[in-house]
Structure formats: structure tokens, C-alpha cells
Amino acid sequence: MSESPELRTSELGAGVVRRATRLADGRELLYYDDPGTSLGSERGVDARTLDGRPETATMRQDVLTGDWITFATARQNRVMMPSADADPLAPQTPSNPSEVPAQYDVAVFENRSPAFGPALIEAVGGVPAARNAPRGLDDLAELGVGRTRTSIGRCEVVCFSPDHEGSFGTQSVTRARTVIEAWADRTAALSALPGIQQVFPFENRGEAIGVTLPHPHGQIYAYPYVTPRTQRLLDSIDRTAPDLMTRVLDSERDSDRLVLQGEHWTAFVPFAARWPLEVHLMPHRHAPDFAALTNAERDELAPLYLRLLRGVDALYPTPTAYIAGWHQAPVNTGRETVRMRLELTSPRRAEDKLKFLAGSEAAMGAWTAEILPEVAAERLRTAIESVPEVTA
Questions:
Q1: Dihedral (C-alpha) 2, 97, 200, 363: value to the nearest 10 degrees?
Q2: Keyword set for this entry (predicted)?
């Protein structure tokens, strides 16, 4: 395999090195090398012959709620639970023309079938170049029947490991720290793209959640709008006080819902948890996103987050499916009041039972919870205590 002449190398924090290149169809690919990696400095070229990228999807506005719904029909043909020899996230081999052309520690690349993008707003004489692109938050907030906009933005895949199976929680501390550095780096880069309003790193884990690939990976969405969940948070802050999130953290740290605490981070089951398993992880200092975290905060997060995830898996004899979403402040609003945090949720309410969102929750958004947060926190504390300290 020939070597890539366009590789661009940068040194990041914690000894992580980023190597940037392009895939055969022009999508961006970034390698994040562990400190002290055994990999060489070169990476192979993606020599595949690929079809052109799909047209950027279209958003339609639900005039009854103001929500924007993306219609990304190209996503219908995604790969479903492939075998190891056909894993699209594994390093390429002669028999597996996967998405990553070389061996790697952590790899990030643009999704081939994105919900947002590849088009972005690129102003030409002050006019957005993308056809029918959003024209800012005021434009998106207007209401009208039949309103559409182009789903500009970016969707990226984050491969935590070249292994075929696993999750973030199965990684080493060193690897977890590399991923955290990648999240921070991508948050900064995506936030700077034209038209991006919010950046959301997340991991879907388990078939019960709808995962289609067993490979240990997550995703990052860069939205052209502020998400509905964050809009409600901004409204709550406006209706209470700018320090609302500080007050919430102080209350949870002083409660019997606290499950894990470090010098810089606290994990807790929230006072009004919706899901049978729900835990939030928040930094003690205000930080709007990963890019704003100090090296000390990132260093502590790696082992603490791993221990939390391994505690979640210790609740039952088999691994638990979950969504681990890193909520970050919007790019252009709420930076001084919205504190980043993890919200990990799972529908698993017993070893062999799941919570399904039926009439009240799904249709009306009116939740009924079966497990008290204090009980859930006690169970999770016990599970975490059974997990050895994470040191490697």
C-alpha cells in the first residue's frame, strides 16, 4: 500500500498526535495516535473507487412544535451487524475495503451517509452558498406551514479502537484519554465551521438501543440548529437564574443520589430521572464543552468515566445497552450558563426487562418512572464499588 503524501500532523494535549488526511471521495479522516503509540508516522492511501457523496438531506419544520425534522433517505442502506471480516470500521485489508485505510489507535471520519451535511454555509458576498440553507437562529425560529431548509452540518464517526467488538468502557485509560482529546479537538473544529450551532458527541451501545455495528465507536453530530432539549434548558435558565446548573450540581452532590465523585467531576442519578437507569456526569467547574476542559479535568475524566461505565455493566450478568450523550453548550448562545455534562440513559429496568416508550411517554412526552432515583443510585453505587479502580 502506498504512503499518503497529504498527511498533516499536529501535536495535541496529553501526548496525543493528530494525523489528518482524506478518503477517496474527499471525506476528512483523522487519526489520533496514543502517546507512545507503536504505530509509525505514515498512513496508507485510501485507494478505493467510491461513488460520489449523497446530496445533503432536507429538513422540514413541524409548525405545531417548531422542531426541525431531517429526512436523510440515504441512511436506509446502512450496514447491519457485519462479521469481523466485513467490519466497515476496521483497518482495511485486501479482503475488506473498509472506511479506514490503515492501522490506527483512534480514527475519526465523516459519515458516508450523514443526517447533516456535507453541505455547509459558505457565505459568498454575504449570501449562503448552500441552496435553501438556514439563515441563522432567527430564521430557524420562525414558524410557517411547509417550511424547509437544507440539513447543512457534519456527522462524524469516532472509532475508539481497531477491534471488532467492544465499547468505550472496554478501553484502557490511555485510550480513553486519547478519545477525550479527539472529542475536544473535534468540538473546537466543528464549532468553527460555518452554520454550525451545536456539537454533540455520543455513543450508542447495544442492539436494544438500535446499534448496527458491534465495533467500539461513537459519533459526533454538528447541528445547524440548537436542539429542542437544549432550547428547553436555555428556557429553564432564563426562568430561574444564570447559575441554575451550579445549583443543580450542588444539590445532587449533597444528596443520596450521588454515585461517584472525583476532584473535578461528579456522577449522580438526577432528582427526576426519567429512565430506569439514568446517570449524569458533570464537571465541578463551569465548562461549556470538551474544548474548554483543562488538562487536569480531561486526565481525571478518563479513569472516572471508565469506572462509571464498568459499574453500569456490573449491574447485571450481561452488558447493558445505553445511550451516552455528551451535552454541550450551543456554539453561539448560552456559553456562560450551559455547563457540559454526560447524560447516560438505558431502558433496561431489570436483567430481562426493558422499558418501552408507549402511549403517555411517546405520544405526550409525559413520563412515568418505575424506579425511584435514590434506589437506582444505591444499586449503581454498589455495582461501582464491585469494580476495581481503573488504572490501566
A1: 170
A2: Carbohydrate metabolism, Galactose metabolism, Metal-binding, Nucleotidyltransferase, Transferase, Zinc
Task: Please give the backbone phi and psi of residue 221, each rounded to the nearest 5 degrees, phi first.
Answer: -105, 135
Contacts 24+ apart (CB under 8 A), 83-91: 84/164, 87/164, 87/213, 87/215, 88/213, 89/157, 89/159, 89/213, 89/215, 89/217, 90/162, 90/164, 90/215, 91/162
* CA–CA dist 328, 293 (Å, integer): 12
Query: What distance in Å separates the CA atoms of residue 251 and residue 257, rounded to the nearest whole number?
Result: 10
Concerning whether 217 is annotated as a catalytic residue, the answer is yes
Q: Nearest Cα to 274, choosing from 349, 384, 339, 206?
A: 349
Report which residue type is found at 350: A
Q: Beta partners for 280?
A: 268, 343
Residues 6+ apart with CB under 8 A from 339: 245, 246, 249, 282, 283, 286, 287, 288, 329
CB 175 within 8 A of CB 159: no
Q: Using the 8-state DSSP alphabet, how is residue 314 labeled?
A: T
Which residue stretches of the chain have pLDDT < 70?
1-5, 75-79, 123-128
Which residue from 283, 292, 286 is spatially nearest to 188, judged by alpha carbons? 292
Strands (E), 174-276: 198-205, 217-223, 258-261, 265-268
CA angle 150, 136, 234 (to 5 degrees): 110
What are the residue boundaries of the structural domains of the chain, listed by start?
8-225, 229-385
The pLDDT score that the predictor gives to residue 2 is 43
Q: What average pLDDT does the chain have?
A: 94
Neighbours of 36 (CB within 10 A): 7
8-225 and 229-385 agree in CATH topology: yes
> Selecting from 3.30.428.10, 3.40.190.10, 3.30.300.30, 3.30.70.20, what CATH number does the domain 229-385 have?
3.30.428.10
Q: pLDDT digit string (tens) for 129-152?
A: 788 999 999 999 999 999 999 999
Question: Active-site residue among 215, 217, 280, 286?
Answer: 217
Residue 65: predicted pLDDT: 96
* Residue 310 grid coordinates: 464498568
Q: Which CATH architecture has domain 8-225?
A: 2-Layer Sandwich (3.30)
